[in-house]
């Protein structure tokens, strides 16, 4: 049998200092300390445009430290995204090739794309090598504008803390939400999906990311212009359709925070097996001014016209039958109602 030549991994776009090949002559086995173990690939998916360019600057400073901290045990594979959705393809390829972990470096948008890369045609993506015993974990170095998902774990936007989590290598199973609509396509989210005013605000906020967290305030103000609360119909856990009058926003939380730190679904827990759905009804613009502090603290559930439900699935329709009610997932514009949101418990292993 000839010596196996290590494959060139298609997702390794750039490796400033390629690691010396460390495969044993008979294949991919490396002696580490006293035991045999496979040298593992960590694929870092970096959005150079994240946080208005701050992500790439921080990443460049971080890379030498990352190599010194992890380079002995892992192949550090750096992959810069070339545009929207590229992170999805990089992730799928890395999982097919058997990476130990795919780590999103950027904000919630990058994390969202990496999570979507864990799925393909309605199924979880798996290693091409059917004999492989390990699964690919999701990791996160939060370096975005909002980085809201990280807040549910009380993680700060501190890359060194994130690297320590990767060094520890502890994994936990997290739930993922799947969204379906009129087409057969599935879309996945890990943090919060939301409907109507907040989704419209997110749509506008994305145009002002250059202004940092201020983008959310400007987005909200712009969304208020011409906003009307809408009567919606919802179906919870496959039950009966129920009317939900004058909805201002309906938020489906797997994580707790959105919009740059607003604790909108305070009881959501990414490892809980349920979504928390929070519905704001009949809110006027001044309600937001009066109740904003409660929304940020997550103490708004006792406020009039706010309700909270624990669900595994929820379908939402616009009663008027129009297709103009905005939907976003993890801060990314997704389209318009109708949509179905369903939880997949313990869908992904995450480095925590
Ligand atoms: N090379 C690229 N050029 C332009 N846009 C990109 C590129 N790579 C990724 N993107 C897009 O950038 C968007 C935002 O990225 P990301 O979430 O990392 O940063 P952010 O918006 O600053 O942070 P947050 O989402 O936490 O507020 C994503 O929707 C992604 O599709």
TrEMBL record:
Cellular component GO terms held in the UniProt record: membrane
DAGKc domain mapped to chain residues: 37-183
InterPro entries linked to this entry: ATP-NAD_kinase_N, Diacylglycerol/lipid_kinase, Diacylglycerol_kinase_cat_dom, Lipid_Phosphate_FormReg, NAD/diacylglycerol_kinase_sf, YegS/DAGK_C
Keywords: ATP-binding, Kinase, Nucleotide-binding, Transferase
Family matches, as Pfam families: DAGK_cat, YegS_C
GO molecular function, one term: kinase activity
GO biological process assignments: phospholipid biosynthetic process; sphingolipid metabolic process
Descriptive protein name: DAGKc domain-containing protein
Organism: Rhamnella rubrinervis
Lineage: Eukaryota, Viridiplantae, Streptophyta, Embryophyta, Tracheophyta
């Amino acid at each position: 049998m000839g010596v196996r030549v290590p494959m060139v991994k298609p997702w390794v776009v750039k490796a400033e200092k390629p690691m010396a090949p460390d495969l044993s002559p008979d294949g991919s086995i490396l002696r580490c300390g006293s035991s045999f173990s496979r040298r593992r690939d960590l694929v870092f998916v970096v959005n150079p445009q994240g946080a208005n360019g701050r992500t790439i600057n921080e990443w460049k400073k971080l890379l030498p430290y990352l190599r010194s901290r992890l380079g002995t045990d892992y192949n550090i594979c750096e992959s810069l995204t070339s545009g929207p959705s590229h992170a999805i393809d990089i992730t799928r390829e890395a999982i097919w090739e058997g990476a130990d972990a795919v780590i999103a470096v950027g904000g919630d948008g990058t994390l969202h794309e990496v999570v979507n890369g864990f799925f393909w045609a309605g199924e979880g993506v798996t290693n091409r090598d059917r004999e492989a015993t390990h699964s690919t974990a999701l990791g996160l170095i939060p370096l975005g504008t909002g980085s809201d998902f990280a807040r549910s774990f009380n993680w700060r936007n501190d890359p060194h803390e994130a690297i320590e989590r990767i060094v520890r290598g502890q994994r936990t199973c997290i739930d993922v939400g799947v969204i379906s609509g009129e087409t057969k396509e599935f879309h996945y989210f890990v943090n919060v999906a939301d409907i109507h005013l907040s989704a419209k605000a997110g749509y506008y906020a994305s145009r002002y990311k250059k202004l940092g967290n201020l983008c959310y305030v400007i987005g909200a103000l712009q969304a208020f212009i011409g906003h009307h609360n809408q009567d919606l119909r919802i179906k919870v856990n496959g039950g009966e359709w129920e009317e939900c009058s004058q909805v201002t926003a309906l938020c489906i939380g797997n994580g707790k925070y959105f919009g740059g730190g607003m604790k909108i679904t305070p009881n959501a827990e990414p490892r809980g097996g349920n979504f928390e759905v929070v519905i704001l009804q009949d809110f006027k613009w001044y309600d937001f001014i009066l109740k904003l502090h409660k929304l940020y603290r997550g103490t708004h559930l006792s406020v009039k016209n706010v309700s909270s439900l624990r669900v595994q699935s929820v379908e939402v329709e616009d009663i008027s039958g129009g297709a103009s009610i905005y939907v976003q997932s993890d801060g990314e514009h997704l389209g318009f109602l109708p949509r179905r949101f369903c939880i997949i418990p313990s869908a992904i292993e995450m480095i925590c």
